[in-house]
C-alpha cells in the first residue's frame, strides 16, 4: 500500500466509530490523509479510532453529530473544513438500519430512515462541495440490498439505499464541472460488530454470495480508498458493487 497517496489531503467520514466507517477512516489515514469523522453515541470508540489515526502521524478530529439532524451534519462538514483549511474527500457512511414488516414501520420510521440514509448524505455532499476544489471526491456507502432485496422486511432500508443511486448520478452531473467526482459503493455482507460473520444468519447470507463468505471491513475500505485516489480520477456517477457476487 502506498502510504503517501493521500499526503496533504483531508477527509471527513461519517459514522466512523466502528465497522466499515472506522476501517475507511483508518485506511485513508494509512494513505497519509488527515481524517475527521462523525459518530453518534460511543465517545470511547470514537476516541479509540482517533488515537489510531494519530498513532499513524496524521491529524484526527472526532465530531459528535447525528446524520439525521440537518444542522448537525452541515456543521460537522464545516468544522472539518475549518480544522484542515479545506476538504478533499467526503465519505458518506453513516446509516440507519431499519428493518421489519411494512405493517410495523410507520411514518416516524420512514422519516428517520430517509433523514439519515438520504437527506444526510445529500446535505453533507452539498456542504462539502462548497469547500472542495478540483480533484475533490465524494463517495457514498450504500448496500447490496439496494440492488437485490433477498429477504423480507427490507423495504424501507432498500428504498433509502436505492435513492443513493439517483443522488450520485445527479451530483456527478452537477459537480463534474467543478472537477469533483461523485461515486457510490454497494457493499455486500460485511463482518462488523453489527453484522458478524459468525452471527445466527450468517451462513445463509453467505450462501447468497458467489464467494460464499462475508467481506472484511478492510476490503470495503480498500475500494473506497481507490475511489478517493488519483487512479479513479475519470470515475464519476459510478455504482460499484463490492458484494462478493451477491447481486450477480
UniProtKB/TrEMBL annotation:
The keyword Oxidoreductase applies. InterPro entries: NAD(P)-bd_dom_sf, SDR_fam. Keywords: Oxidoreductase. SUPFAM superfamilies: NAD(P)-binding Rossmann-fold domains. One of its GO terms (molecular function) is oxidoreductase activity. Belongs to the short-chain dehydrogenases/reductases (SDR) family. This is Cyclic-di-GMP-binding biofilm dispersal mediator protein.
Amino acid at each position: 500500500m502506498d502510504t503517501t497517496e493521500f499526503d496533504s489531503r483531508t477527509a471527513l467520514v461519517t459514522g466512523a466509530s466502528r465497522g466499515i466507517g472506522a476501517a475507511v477512516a483508518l485506511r485513508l489515514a494509512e494513505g497519509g490523509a488527515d481524517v475527521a469523522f462523525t459518530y453518534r453515541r460511543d465517545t470511547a470508540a470514537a476516541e479509540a479510532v482517533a488515537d489510531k489515526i494519530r498513532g499513524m502521524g496524521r491529524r484526527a478530529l472526532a465530531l459528535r453529530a447525528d446524520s439525521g439532524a440537518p444542522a448537525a451534519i452541515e456543521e460537522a462538514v464545516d468544522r472539518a473544513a475549518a480544522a484542515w483549511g479545506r476538504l478533499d474527500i467526503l465519505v458518506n457512511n453513516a446509516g440507519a438500519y431499519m428493518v421489519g414488516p411494512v405493517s410495523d414501520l410507520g411514518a416516524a420510521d420512514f422519516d428517520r430512515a430517509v433523514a439519515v440514509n438520504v437527506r444526510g448524505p445529500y446535505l453533507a455532499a452539498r456542504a462539502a462541495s462548497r469547500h472542495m476544489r478540483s480533484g475533490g471526491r465524494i463517495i457514498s456507502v450504500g448496500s447490496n440490498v439496494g440492488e437485490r432485496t433477498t429477504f423480507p422486511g427490507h423495504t424501507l432500508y432498500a428504498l433509502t439505499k436505492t435513492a443513493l443511486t439517483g443522488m450520485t448520478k445527479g451530483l456527478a452531473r452537477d459537480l463534474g464541472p467543478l472537477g469533483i467526482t461523485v461515486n457510490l459503493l454497494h457493499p455486500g455482507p460485511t463482518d462488523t460488530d453489527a453484522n458478524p460473520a459468525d452471527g445466527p444468519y450468517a451462513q445463509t447470507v453467505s450462501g447468497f454470495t458467489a464467494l460464499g463468505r462475508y467481506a472484511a471491513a478492510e476490503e470495503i475500505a480498500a475500494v473506497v480508498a481507490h475511489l478517493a485516489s488519483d487512479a479513479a480520477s475519470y470515475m464519476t456517477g459510478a455504482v460499484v458493487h463490492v458484494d462478493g457476487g451477491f447481486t450477480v
